[in-house]
Design a protein that fits this description.
- The chain has about 100 residues and is mainly α.
- Helix content is about 75%, strand content about 0%.
- The chain contains three helices and no strands.
- Helix 1 crosses helix 2, helix 1 packs across helix 3 and helix 2 packs antiparallel against helix 3.
- It starts with a helix and ends with a helix.
Length: about 100
């Protein structure tokens, strides 16, 4: 299950395209708030993956596939967050290198 923060990141990634089928975020929330909630969602997914793996290793009734799914969700959320961060840094560097 995706958290609201991950949903916000996914919506931002979908809204970044110029196609007619893309959906833009309609809320009036500042970009920083959306980014904070997305990072909180990624952290929550990481905590779920850690607890699932710990439960698997301790024999607490966690199935292998549940632990793997939680781990993959956390990995994909982190990769998406990293990609958004890299794009933001690249955009900042591009703006800073402009001459007026």
């Amino acid at each position: 299950m995706l958290t609201s923060g991950m949903s916000a990141l996914t919506s931002m990634a979908a809204g970044a395209g110029a196609g007619s089928g893309t959906k833009r975020i309609a809320s009036g929330a500042p970009f920083g708030d959306l980014l904070k909630s997305a990072i909180t969602g990624v952290d929550h997914l990481q905590e779920q993956a850690t607890s699932a793996v710990d439960g698997l290793l301790q024999g607490n009734g966690v199935d292998v596939h549940d632990a793997m799914i939680a781990t993959q969700k956390a990995d994909m959320a982190f990769e998406l967050t990293l990609a958004v961060r890299n794009k933001a840094v690249a955009a900042y560097q591009q703006v800073m290198s402009m001459q007026f």
